[in-house]
Specification:
Two copies of one chain form a homodimer.
Chain A lengths: L2 H4 L6 E7 L17 H5 L15 E5 L2 E7 L5 E5 L11 E3 L16 E7 L3 E5 L6 E4 L24 H6 L7 E7 L3 E7 L4 H12 L12 E4 L6 H13 L6 E4 L22 H10 L3 E7 L9 H4 L20 H14 L7 E5 L25 H22 L6 E3 L11 E3 L6 H10 L17 H12 L4 E4 L13 H5 L7 H32 L4 E3 H4 L13 E3 L3 E3 L8 E6 L3 E4 L4 E4 L2 E6 L7 E4 L2 E6 L11 E8 L7 E6 L11 E9 L3 E7 L7 E8 L3 E2 L2
Helix pairs in contact in A: 5-6, 8-9, 11-13
Chain lengths: 704, 704
């Protein structure tokens, strides 16, 4: 091995340059947030790369550059928000941003040219091209048979699945086919464990996003045709009905023009936005505004943006800003700052920034689009979501306001951006898989609840979303809250469900559980930010030595001590894997040994949730909304009777970037079987965020 | 306009060279069948190109070459076998061969970089790259509004369809984004009508395929697990049940190894193939053998093919022959000739020669694959089906045996190949659209019948297939004929339908109607071959002045005088457009004026079929099979009472390539209201192919 390859560029991170000069517009070259070098240095020291980096081969082809990396028997995961599959070994994955990724091709709202293997290392190919990763998919021909045609194979397939499933998947390399480039940099992330490899990638990305405290509450996007009065009526109804809610989202109708966007209040439907904002804030609501990046000719920023946008292509008649140009970012951010952030808006939904490859009509810009900064449409599609989110985040940062927002596209290195991904797709299995897969690449994903087919469907979807990074109900298509009427037509007709009050009570209970979890979740986000530990994680990340976890795409770790196994609509029971250790079922307090599969029944209002045995779970008294400088009244639940692991609660102002200057601290909870519970502050700023009301030893029922 | 652009390269065909040197491996450069120059010269003389060819622009980009062609208000069609859409204006179409084209993206088994417009010209971009055609899809930004933000647009969408349907589609150019190339040739086909533009493209391709007469009969692919005795039992059963059938197809189990292929009889299941072939031929069955092109190490041709195949990638452990090399074609053809064609096999099903982009596991070769002749995997995918079919066809031509075969991939210029396309997709609407769209680009497509959900589903699918170029029942998944049991499980259990005899009688009737149509269809194929008139054609090709036809993707012209409007499963009635002229409904002999929409009911055993008023329809007495040198006993049906158009029947030996040396003729049928029917032979070889039994004036019922 060459000496220079032995030396990491950052602790535990190696860089291999292949071919000629790499392209200028790559995720690493365009990054705004720097790598967390110090945090990387705190991780286990690795003196050697995880494999022989000199064995990485690159071949220049007419079509681009071919990169080949050896692969052993390990399993491969990652490639971003893959809704259609989990384990990627044997597959081809095209890293292409797509608004409607209906097939298992790699296409995604947020594909990432990064993978991680079960033997504990990660690989990032730093390109914004639509690279194809062939993960052990193809092998070379073998030598001729010694005795041809003597063997006989009975053909037994009677269906196409049997035919194509028999494909040989024994190749021992990952081949990356990168179009149009002459050279590329590849980054290798050491472990030694799989989780540590992912953590290094996330810290290399800049660390995970830390949302404002209110971002962890309940989100509700209001009906697209609502005017100001109707939004206010809904807001008051939520408070009167004691439905916890922190964020109200306004859909395109708030603007004077959409699609494309004017970024200007609609003077008819929203005549006095300032007073609406003020009334909503008095009710402890945060306000999120929908938009996309395509600038309508009637927009105040159109004239300034014209020379900074693609000169040749418009989308919905709107400009496509070149957000790789600081000046374009500045113009866009300044307008948002002046018109919205300074007036009390704390978040945006950045829609339509992906691409339109599977839609019959290609609404988004083509790959051949030219931009004044030099990118083409292919490169821009890969990075558009990230650059757009960065632009909006810049405006918030300048005003020392934290946001949790939404974005429909992402790519590599987007972990630090406080923007949650979402999709127009809606399959429940896919949405759950999204939660699970998002852990591999430092992404946040919301399995948002929209239309529902039944009360069961509504409840199962709500249960899934309250255990996700963003508990979002997106009711943009219906005027009534979906728990009062799930049926689209009846909802529009104003017809309430016969038993809406009972259902609403159950929904309230569920949302209250989310509110109880906020201190726990906030600490998980702090782990994400400071240590790169994903909030929601596939089991295989934490238990990569256990091959039973290799295919589990419907259970996930939530923070340090919880494991969630959501039930889907139609299920009365489900199989659940309990990994190494011991577990307590939250609902019925049953104790389980680990390393076993169990079949668990759960009625409609129960979601299978497991707590690690011998851990602490702090739960807050539920609030209607987080509001300003909240105080959490905690009940610390003690699960177990032996050597209880301590738990750290994160505290800061929850709303500004002061934590970046060290204004934060931790409350360490610990439990001694003899002496009971105690808490210790470590430089907690502000003090008094957590008030420990009581400690509760959970009575455990023994089980199989 | 430059003088050299005014001069066509062939009558009515212009060539425009753009950029630097084009690639070596393009459809035109690799063509085997030459253009039909003489036939092109017989078409209307065009002294000028259909538009200003100097206005075609090309821009070199890093990603490839961008070609821009002006577009007026005309509608655009084509791009090959598009199963998911019909009118392509406003869309993006990627010309990429794909085994599972589930979305309207352009991906297809047989995409073609050719389009034709309603103003009567066609455009072929001669590339084997995955070109993207943006058909009037994107426009440039406009100037800023004079008074920004004064306008207000009420946002009214409450669903995603409404959102994305509003995309502006006003761009006035077709942009072709061709990756990786420096230069390209573009061919322009004049009309002046749309049909004539398509005819010029088909004659440029070499003229349409002329199948052997037996190819127009009924095809039946037998259960994949059948052995020789079971195949024979089925063959005898079909004859005993008097189910017309000309071709039996054997599935992969006939080989000693598949997947990949040995091209060698399975000595256990098919111990004495020679006697089986002989017995089947005695029963007037032609035999078609399934295969794909990937050569298994146990195959007799493996060793010879090894240096002529991709050195780096195998598929299902089999070699990928480089069929661009004459030597590879020769080895493959020689084996087929010696082992199969010389032993009585008259056709093959060339499976799996497309690509696997939407399948979870990429069984086919990747785009980066290298081939000894110099092509890469992207180019090879585009041309693999064509080159493979050409290879097999070579073997037949060398033995002066005509074939009609099957192939699962195609591209440009494949009209002369006697290979019919098919798909693993199965949506009825898509299958019908395939029949319609195949007319734009000189393709043959079979909406084959496989599994069925009900008797209705079976019958509706059979009705569609008997009016298609290839009447194929593909029962590879089930042992019993589907009309004895459509249900997969019950079929495997040997359980007959209670009323199978009635259903079989109806199916027999339907197949007999197909057999009656053979002289008419054969003449339509002769028109396809000699004049480039597609056998199945969208209405818009014949009636492009009538904008009502612009979106009709579920009716089609069949030959010169018939129009078919199939009913789909679940339909009790359907809307049908009757274009200019007058029409007679075949079932109830009702007379209709043209240029109107009608709603037509049809019971399960009726398919809406219309005959042009004042035309002749020759129908043959149905046979069980075409057999050797058939004689057709004709009833010529006279539809109308005025100036009846004459009809030409094509005649040749129906089995060899003698027609290429002029050994063919026409029988001209004409009808005089006073004097009755008469027929005139024009150099008919052989004489006596058609025996006109009687002339029947169809009693027409007047209607709306």
């Amino acid at each position: 091995m060459k000496a220079n390859l032995l030396k990491p560029v950052l602790p535990g991170v190696w860089k291999v340059h292949l071919g000629q000069t790499p392209e200028a517009f790559t995720p690493v070259n365009l990054r705004v947030v720097p790598a967390q070098e110090e945090r990387l240095g705190e991780m286990p020291l690795l003196s050697n790369p995880p494999f022989d980096l000199t064995a990485i081969r690159a071949t220049k082809q007419k079509r681009g550059l071919l990169v080949e990396l050896a692969l052993g028997r390990e399993e491969v995961y990652g490639f971003g928000l893959q809704l259609k599959s989990f384990r990627q070994s044997g597959k081809k994955k095209m890293i292409r941003v797509n608004s409607d990724p209906i097939s298992d091709t790699g296409d995604s709202h947020a594909p990432v040219p990064f993978y991680v293997t079960s033997s504990g290392y990660g690989v990032l190919v730093d390109t914004s091209r639509y690279a194809n990763f062939y993960v052990g998919a193809h092998q070379a021909p073998e030598a001729p048979a010694v005795n041809p045609v003597t063997s006989t194979v009975a053909f037994s397939a009677t269906g196409t699945d049997a035919l194509y499933g028999s494909s040989a998947r024994t190749a021992r390399s990952v081949v990356v086919d990168i179009p149009h480039v002459e050279g590329v940099d590849v980054y290798i992330f050491g472990g030694p464990t799989m989780l540590e490899a992912v953590r290094r990638y996330i810290l290399f990305s800049g660390g995970g996003a830390l949302p404002p405290l209110w971002g962890l509450g309940i989100w509700y996007r209001t009906f697209g045709k609502f005017n100001q009065e109707q939004v206010m009526a809904l807001a008051r109804q939520l408070r009167e009905a004691r439905i916890p809610c922190d964020v109200l989202g306004l859909e395109p109708g708030w603007q004077s023009h959409a699609y494309s966007c004017s970024y200007h209040w609609n003077p008819e439907a929203f005549a006095t936005p300032a007073s609406m904002i003020s009334e909503l804030r008095d009710l402890d609501f945060e306000i999120n505004l929908w938009e996309h990046a395509f600038v309508h000719p009637s927009s105040p920023v159109y004239r300034d943006m014209l020379p900074l946008a693609s000169p040749s292509v418009a989308v919905w008649n709107g400009l496509i800003p070149d957000f790789s140009l600081p000046q374009a970012r500045e113009i866009f951010a300044r307008h948002h700052e002046k018109e919205f952030i300074n007036k009390g808006i704390t978040g945006f939904k950045l829609d339509e920034c992906d691409n339109s490859d599977f839609i019959s009509y290609p609404w988004s810009f083509p790959e051949y689009t030219d931009f004044p900064g030099g990118m083409d449409g292919e490169q821009m599609h890969s990075l558009f979501g990230t650059l757009y989110a960065q632009t909006i985040w810049d405006a918030f940062r300048k005003n020392n306001v934290r946001t949790l927002s939404q974005v429909r596209a992402g790519h590599a290195l987007s972990a630090p951006l406080p923007f949650v991904l979402y999709s127009d797709l809606y399959d429940q299995t896919d949405f759950l898989r999204g939660v699970v897969n998002s852990g591999f690449c430092g992404q946040l994903w919301s399995p948002e609840v929209r239309q529902c087919e039944s009360v069961e469907d509504l409840v199962r979807r709500l249960q899934m979303v309250v255990f996700s990074p963003q508990a979002l109900i997106n009711a943009w298509m219906v005027p009534l809250t979906p728990w009062r009427q799930f049926d689209y037509t009846k909802n529009h007709a104003g017809e309430l469900l016969a038993d809406w009050q009972e259902i609403e009570a159950k929904v309230r209970e569920l949302f209250e559980f989310r509110m109880q979890l906020i201190p726990y979740l906030y600490s998980a986000f702090a782990d994400y930010h400071f240590s790169g530990i994903p909030v929601c994680r596939p089991l295989v990340l934490d238990y990569s030595q256990d091959s039973e976890t290799f295919n589990i795409d419907n259970q996930f770790m939530l923070g340090r001590n919880l494991m969630v196994a959501p039930m889907l609509t139609g299920q009365k029971s489900r199989r659940i894997y309990l990994p190494e250790g011991e577990w307590v079922s939250y609902a019925d307090k049953k104790h389980f040994k680990g390393r076993q599969w169990i079949e668990m029944e759960a009625d409609l209002y129960t979601i299978p949730l497991f707590v690690k045995y011998n851990t602490l779970l702090p739960l807050a008294a539920p609030m209607q909304a987080i509001g300003n400088d909240p105080k959490f009244l905690l009940t610390v639940k003690v699960f177990g009777s032996g050597d209880i692991a301590p738990f750290r609660l994160f505290a800061d102002d929850g709303a500004t970037y002061s934590y970046e200057k060290g204004h934060y601290g931790w409350v360490e909870l610990s439990w001694d079987t003899q002496q009971g519970g105690s808490s210790k502050n470590k430089k907690t700023v502000p003090t008094g965020r957590y008030d420990i009301k009581n400690w509760e030893v959970v009575p455990i029922v023994s089980s199989v």
